[in-house]
Amino acid sequence: MVVVLNTALQKREEIVQLSQLDDELRLRLAAQAAACAAFDWDVVEGTIRWDGATEILPLHLDAANAASFFDGIIPESRRDMQALLSSRDQGSNSFLVDVEIATALGAITLTMTGTRFAAIDGSTARLTGMMRDTTERSREVRRLSYLATRDELTGHLNRNALREELSGTIESAKAENRNCAFLVASVDRLAMINDSFGFDAGDEVIMGTGDRLARTLRGSDIIGRTAGNKFGVILKNCRENEIGVVAARLRASVRGSGIETRAGMAQVTCSVGAVWLPHAASNSQEAMLRAEQALDKARASGRDGFAVYEPSAQRETARLRLMQISDEVMQALKDNRLKLAYQPIVAARSRKVSHYECLLRLIRPDGSVQTAGLFVPACEQMGIVHLVDRFALEATVRELKSHPAITLAVNVSGTAASDPAWLQSFVEYVREQQDVAPRLIVELTETAALHHFEENARFVSQLREMGVRVAIDDFGAGYTSFRNLQMLHVDTVKIDGSYVKDLSQSPENQVFVRTLVGLARNFDIKTVAEWVGSDDDAALLQNFGVDYFQGFHFGEPLLDPKWA
Question: 118 and 159 share a domain?
Answer without folding.
Answer: no
